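Dear Dr. H.,

I hope your travels went smoothly. While you were away I took the liberty of generating a structure for the chain from your last submission, since the lab meeting agenda had it listed for discussion. I wanted you to have the full record in hand beforehand rather than looking at slides cold. The sequence, exactly as received, is reproduced here:
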Amino acid sequence: MLIGFDANFENTSAATLNVDSLGAKTIKKNHDTDLASGDIEIGQKVLVSYDGTNFQMISQVANAVTGGDVAGPASATDRALALYSGTTGKVIKDGPALGSSGDVLTSNGAGADPTFQTSASFPSGTSMLFQQTAAPTGWTKQTTHNNKSIRLQTGTVTTGGAVNFSTVFGTGKATDSHTLTTGESAAHTHTQKRHTSGTTGENTVANQEDAGSGNWSASLETGSSGGAGGHTHNLSNLDLQFVDCIIADKDA
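The corresponding predicted structure, in token form, is as follows:
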């Protein structure tokens, strides 16, 4: 039996409806649940159906519908995930066995339930580069290495060198001062002719064109000259671009 009516009151708790000689019968929603306060408002058009014991409310309740618990199978694992089964009409079934703290739910492909698997993480003590000032959560920033360059190595990893990065690279750089040695100079001599005969007792250097009589030979070297000071070379193209990074170690 269907009954429709215009509500002339707002319910504040469970409500009843008295139709003819039936007496006051409880109005239920969702089959067997008592009404909550405000489920029926003044002026609301309400449709109910008598099931022989109670009136079941067919029309929508006035209160906003909110999320709630969904009943699963009786054998469901506490706090497990709920899965839908396509072979049983989308009925909720028990989910995969619970994993440990930090595990990740992993898909096993179509036709297979997902499972919890140990989260892939870096072992404690792993060192990595990060392009940021502070180490991320779970990592500790190293402070041993600062203002250094990075060298790729296929063999044993080590450290080395004596001069920091900004001392070698940057603007206004010059080579170390260096003084040429005799061995580093190009091999060369300076020669001139010497007057070997003429006036008795003379052995003088004279102008080749005006020396007068006598024989000339190329055998006399000039003296040396120079300050023997060192010199440097300015380096104008060592303002190398760079990106700062930190090294951080994975915490235990």
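Two observations you may find useful: The first strand starts at residue 2 and ends at 6. The chain has one helix and 17 strands.

With kind regards,
E. W.
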